[in-house]
Amino acid sequence: MASTASTSAPVAHNAVPPPVVPSAGRSSRIAPHSHIKGLGLTPEGNAPPDASGGFIGQTNAREACGVIVDLIKSRKFSGRALLLVGAPGTGKTALALAVSHELGAKVPFCPIVGSEVYSTEVKKTEVLAEAFRRAIGLRIKETKEVYEGEVTELTPTESENPLSGYGKTVSHVVVGLKTVKGTKQLRLDPSIYEAILKEKIVVGDVVYVEANTGAVKRVGRSDAYASSYDLESETYVPLPKGDVHKRKELVQDVTLGDLDAANARPQGGQDIMSVMGSLVKSGRTEVTDKLRREVNKVVKGYVDQGVAEVVPGVVFIDEVHMLDIECFTYLNALLESPMAPTVIFATNRGNSLVRGTTDIVSPHGVPVDLLDRCMIVKTDAYTREQVGKVVQLRANVEGLRLGPGVLERLAAEGEKSSLRYALQLLTPAAILAGLSGRTTIEAEDISEMGELFLDAKTSAGLIGEGGGFLGGR
Ligand SMILES: Nc1ncnc2c1ncn2[C@@H]1O[C@H](COP(=O)(O)OP(=O)(O)OP(=O)(O)O)[C@@H](O)[C@H]1O
Ligand SMILES: [Mg+2]
């Protein structure tokens, strides 16, 4: 007996929504760094030149980052900073992302770009402070009364809407749960049905419902269903043991930033976020220092009771030279605060003016007092061979086939101008090949691309020859 929402009649706002069809496959958008899966280090921490993690060369920088990852994992690098420096396109951003992969999903990683601090609505220092809060995780363990099991039945029961006369509303939902030991049928409130739809729960999923709050969480798909063909990467979990109704230790990962935000706008949610809702009932809409201190106090209480554990994560500030002197001064203070995460900076500038000053020239555009707190790691330029390998990796990720000589051509282009230029020629060349009815990119496509799209040096050179036509009319 499945839901039978009528689609033609006007529908009350809380009528049964149409059944959720699980999406057939994840759209495969390919981001510039999607070939990077990690630092690709050996267990001893050495960097083989051709890594499985998608990283080519850059052995020094990778090993250095490996050490930092170990330090972060053993929580010995909080409040310290790593500065990645190197020419454009040498893999600094990629390295930082690899570090985040290595740390795993449980360690918060908060990436921002230097220029993000310049907002007209939020103070520069606020942006930084928030990023730092988002990089401090809190793992909360609670024992709660739950109903857990594999969903055997999911039946919303409708009744006439007493208010409008049109359409139907869900009066309750019947959920059947099965464990190794037994089964149970629950009659749940319609608000829980909304949560069930939101979590995209279908028959065969293993879920638990918190008895007190009614919060529903999907644990995964029951492995009884593991043989069916699933395109998406599913997590299969065994049928839960014990009774359906039981006490269970739940672990939740949140960041201090999440707690700040949830408590600045208390809405009375269902989970841990609103535990602190009782703290601030005034409906504040801004995260103030006072609120942060209050949240800290509660968090400290949790930690002292052994309910929660602080997990310091990483703030990654790309293009750090875009920050100005006020931000840098504030960063010094943030780094010295007791609950500071690890900070990774990246920049491609050499000696340059510190933003916001007129006369302070400093290495990487970062004031010396902050530089002093950083460990500096340099990324090297790539050889032709290495460019070739990265191009090949990208071609694999993008599903492109390269004809004879193409890799050599691109590698040569990359060595002459930059790795990015070589990578950027790849996709349009594939389109060109497609237009000529081929599935493989040939050397001629690359030549044609090279004529259509210039690299920076050539383009600047042309402008120079033309008598600087950008300047004078
Ligand atoms: N060693 C490498 N192995 C594999 N891919 C790489 C490597 N280095 C860079 N790449 C890829 O090359 C491209 C450019 O690298 P990235 O964006 O990390 O450069 P960057 O150093 O951050 O440059 P910028 O200073 O301009 O920000 C990205 O697509 C990146 O994934
Ligand atoms: Mg970058």
Topology:
Layout (H helix, E strand, L loop, with lengths): L58 H15 L7 E5 L6 H12 L5 E5 L10 H11 L1 E25 L7 E11 L4 E6 L1 H9 L6 E6 L5 E7 L13 E2 L7 E11 H9 L24 H17 L2 E5 L1 E5 L6 H12 L5 E6 L3 E3 L7 E3 L4 H4 L2 E5 L5 H15 L2 E2 L3 H11 L2 H17 L4 E2 L1 H10 L3 H10 L8
Parallel strand pairs: 1-12, 1-15, 2-11, 7-8, 11-12, 16-17
Antiparallel strand pairs: 3-4, 3-6, 3-9, 3-10, 4-5, 6-7, 13-14
Helix pairs in contact: 1-2, 3-5, 3-7, 5-6, 9-10, 9-11, 10-11, 11-12
Bound molecules: adenosine-5'-triphosphate and magnesium ion.
The site of magnesium ion (MG) has 4 residues, from helix 2.
Describe the protein.
This protein is of the alpha/beta class. The protein folds into three domains: 59-135 and 313-378, P-loop containing nucleotide triphosphate hydrolases (Rossmann fold); 141-252, OB fold (Dihydrolipoamide Acetyltransferase, E2P) (Beta Barrel); 384-461, Helicase, Ruva Protein, domain 3 (Orthogonal Bundle). It has 13 helices and 17 strands. Strands 3, 4, 5, 6, 7, 8, 9 and 10 form an eight-stranded mixed beta sheet that branches. The relative contact order is 0.14. The model is unreliable at 1-28 and 277-284 (pLDDT under 50).
What tags apply to this protein structure?
473 residues, alpha/beta, Rossmann fold, OB fold (Dihydrolipoamide Acetyltransferase, E2P), Helicase, Ruva Protein, domain 3, 8-stranded mixed β-sheet, 5-stranded parallel β-sheet, 17 strands, 23% strand, disordered N terminus, binds adenosine-5'-triphosphate, binds magnesium ion, AAA+_ATPase
